[in-house]
UniProtKB/TrEMBL annotation:
<dbReference type="Pfam" id="PF13959">
    <property type="entry name" value="CTE_SPB4"/>
</dbReference>
<feature type="compositionally biased region" description="Basic and acidic residues">
    <location>
        <begin position="27"/>
        <end position="39"/>
    </location>
</feature>
<feature type="domain" description="Helicase C-terminal">
    <location>
        <begin position="369"/>
        <end position="539"/>
    </location>
</feature>
<comment type="similarity">
    <text>Belongs to the DEAD box helicase family. DDX18/HAS1 subfamily.</text>
</comment>
<keyword id="KW-0547">Nucleotide-binding</keyword>
<keyword id="KW-0378">Hydrolase</keyword>
<dbReference type="InterPro" id="IPR014014">
    <property type="entry name" value="RNA_helicase_DEAD_Q_motif"/>
</dbReference>
<keyword id="KW-0539">Nucleus</keyword>
<dbReference type="InterPro" id="IPR011545">
    <property type="entry name" value="DEAD/DEAH_box_helicase_dom"/>
</dbReference>
<feature type="compositionally biased region" description="Basic and acidic residues">
    <location>
        <begin position="68"/>
        <end position="81"/>
    </location>
</feature>
<dbReference type="GO" id="GO:0005524">
    <property type="term" value="F:ATP binding"/>
</dbReference>
<dbReference type="GO" id="GO:0016887">
    <property type="term" value="F:ATP hydrolysis activity"/>
</dbReference>
<feature type="domain" description="Helicase ATP-binding">
    <location>
        <begin position="180"/>
        <end position="355"/>
    </location>
</feature>
<dbReference type="InterPro" id="IPR044773">
    <property type="entry name" value="DDX18/Has1_DEADc"/>
</dbReference>
<feature type="short sequence motif" description="Q motif">
    <location>
        <begin position="149"/>
        <end position="177"/>
    </location>
</feature>
<keyword id="KW-0347">Helicase</keyword>
<dbReference type="InterPro" id="IPR014001">
    <property type="entry name" value="Helicase_ATP-bd"/>
</dbReference>
Length: 635
């Protein structure tokens, strides 16, 4: 019985569908006749003929009428009405095929465009800036011709331009002229330029303008975060920011390791619009300060990106980037680019960035005003050469770079003991001491500063005459950053001296490949002060200097053993008896070096002058070490 009812219902439904089809076919020729009489709008004719149940399908109906119109002009109307369903289906299939072919063509064209874009180099992307940027009235060519800050009028606020004028800057440097326009347009930028080329203003001006235009208030929280690798560099960036903000009403602040965390948390709770920070302390506040409002962040600046990664903040940077909002503008500035900075670029910059590079491949990697040279000196005469040089240039401003903190500490104590006044900065000092020493040396017209690579990046110390590299740098890029502390600015002048052992001359090939021009400085042996006997007598009699010299000697050998360029700086080539003489010892102390089986356990990464100048070993596994090898002097 139920099966019979179902069949009846199916039959009734089929009858209703057939009636609807017949009604459709009756109304279609009427629309065609109206078109023939001169009415152009099919949509109007469909509205006049009120077809039941077809009010929501006007587009489909107009398509049917158009298809029938084409068929009507070719053949008889009787054939149309009988075969309209077949014609409609075939036409729909043709249209679908056309759409598919169009989609495949567009997809192929899009993929070809994407492939072409991916094949374009960074130089091609930077060349795009030669034209007019979207939404901009000023082209890059105009800015490079008229490189004065007045060319930015109308795009940069009067408050910022007034502050720049008061700071004494009238013309933009090349990196500023290339980086500021795309940053003002809101584009992500990856910029690299020589040290001392004015990168700080290149990212501070657009960052201030972005927060200023959005009219940030303290209650809105942080709008821009600037990450600097070291405390000294963050203080310097904050000092420039302070000068630029003299006419603005925005709030700004500095958070860094070594400062009081509670006072920083209170300031963050009140609201800081522009924040300068070191990576470790920033991550600490992001994770543990509940009143730190950062969800409205509009801009992230990463200064000296390669240095941040080099000193072991890679994991911190990944966590910071994951915590911060994704919809933001990102600026990445550095003096050198490495594979790790490219990885950070991919992580931090979601949009396709604009690559701004000032340095051409044919140019030298260092500035023109820098006179560079090297001296070949055997191990036993190294300290005597340094002492002679510093005594001759005691009325000038000199920076001396060492490989470890303990070596800096010993030479600082020794030179001051023999009445050659000098200052020192290294990673084992307390923050207050580092800060006061840094500003004291900045304000001095003459003096000697002994330091590790903590002072090698970004610090703008005025009027440095000489950079002396007593211990060799880790690689050519580190050399560039060290000598970048002198000859800063457009017309800066300075000198750099690299002290090498005869076994280390192969390092010059690497410097030549890095486009670093060096001349050999000859020093007559009779002009070097012979103070070896006095030094040995002093170290043997003075308990504190003796203890400090032992630690410095050990840290020097360990740092040398962990050097990146093992082929040139091989610890087995060191004559420890001769090296010990430069520390005032007649018999060298024993140095313990840990030896492992695996090749991958060799140190790969420096910790930035902290600790004993060791290198951070990323690939080291927790395996038991073999017996400790003691290095003894050659007989």
């Amino acid at each position: 019985h139920s099966i019979g009812q179902k069949r009846k219902l199916e039959g009734q439904n089929m009858e209703v569908l057939n009636r609807k089809k017949k009604k459709k076919l009756k109304h279609v020729p009427e629309a065609i006749n109206e078109e023939k009489n001169g009415e152009e709008n099919i949509s109007e004719s469909t509205e006049d003929t009120n077809i039941p149940g077809m009010g929501k399908k006007k587009k489909k109906k107009s398509f049917v009428e158009n298809s029938f119109d084409e068929k009507y002009s070719e053949g008889d109307s009787k054939d149309e009405t009988t075969d309209n369903t077949d014609f409609q289906e075939s036409d729909m299939k043709k249209k679908k095929k056309k759409k598919k072919t169009q989609l495949t063509e567009t997809a192929e064209s899009e993929t070809s465009v994407k492939l072409n874009d991916s094949n374009d180099t960074k130089e091609a992307q930077s060349n795009d800036l030669s034209g007019q940027l979207p939404g901009s009235n000023i082209t890059l060519d105009l800015l490079l011709k008229d490189s004065s800050f007045s060319a930015l009028e109308g795009r940069v606020s009067e408050e910022t331009l007034k502050a720049v004028e008061e700071m004494g800057f009238t013309k933009m440097t090349e990196i500023q002229a290339k980086a500021i326009p795309p940053l003002l347009e809101g584009r992500d930028v990856v910029a690299s330029a020589k040290t001392g080329s004015g990168k700080t203003l290149a990212f501070l001006i657009p960052a201030i303008e972005l927060v200023h235009k959005l009219q940030f208030m303290p209650r809105n929280g942080v709008g821009c975060i600037i990450i600097s690798p070291t405390r000294e560099l963050s203080m310097q960036t904050f000092g420039v920011l302070k000068e630029l903000m003299t006419h603005h009403h925005l709030t700004y602040g500095l958070i860094m390791g070594g400062a009081s965390r509670t006072t920083e948390a209170q300031k963050l709770a009140k609201g800081i619009n522009i924040l300068v920070a070191t990576p470790g302390r920033l991550l600490d506040h992001l994770q543990n300060t509940p009143d730190f409002l950062y969800k409205n962040l509009q801009c992230l600046v990463i200064d000296e990106a390669d240095r941040i990664l080099q000193i072991g903040f890679e994991e911190d940077m990944k966590q910071i980037i994951n915590l911060l909002p994704k919809t933001r503008q990102t600026m990445l500035f550095s003096a050198t680019t490495t594979s790790k900075t490219e990885a950070l670029t991919r992580l931090a910059l979601k949009k396709e960035p604009v690559y701004v590079g000032v340095d051409d491949k044919t140019e030298a990697a260092t500035v023109d005003g820098l006179e560079q040279g090297y001296v070949i000196c055997p191990s036993e005469k190294r300290f005597m050469l340094l002492f002679t040089f510093l005594k001759k240039n005691r009325k000038k401003k000199v920076m001396v770079f060492f490989s470890s903190c303990l070596s800096v500490q010993f030479h600082h104590e020794l030179l001051n003991f023999i009445d050659l006044h000098c200052m020192c900065i290294h990673g084992k000092q307390k923050q207050m001491k580092r800060t006061t020493t840094f500003f004291e040396f900045c304000n001095a017209s003459e003096g000697i500063l002994l330091c590790t690579d903590v002072a090698a990046r970004g610090l703008d110390i005025p009027d440095v005459d000489w950079i002396v590299q007593y211990d060799p740098p880790d690689d050519p890029k580190e050399y560039i950053h060290r000598v970048g502390r002198t000859a800063r600015g457009a017309n800066g002048r300075g000198h750099a001296l690299l002290i090498l052992r005869p076994e280390e001359l192969g390092f010059l090939r690497y410097l030549k490949q890095a486009r670093i021009p060096l001349n050999e400085f000859e020093v007559a042996s009779n002009k070097i002060a012979d103070i070896q006997l006095q030094l040995e007598k002093l170290i043997s009699k003075n308990y504190f200097l003796n203890k400090s010299a032992k630690e410095a000697f050990k840290s020097y050998v360990r740092a040398y053993d962990s050097h990146h360029l093992k082929l040139i700086f091989d610890v087995s080539t060191l004559d420890l008896a001769q090296v010990a003489k430069s520390f005032g010892f007649t018999v060298p102390p024993a140095v313990d070096l840990q030896v492992t089986n695996s090749k991958n356990s060799r140190p790969r990464k420096r910790t930035g002058g902290g600790g004993f100048g060791f290198y951070k070993n990323i690939n080291r596994e927790n395996k038991p070490h073999h017996k400790i090898k003691y290095l003894q002097p050659k007989r």
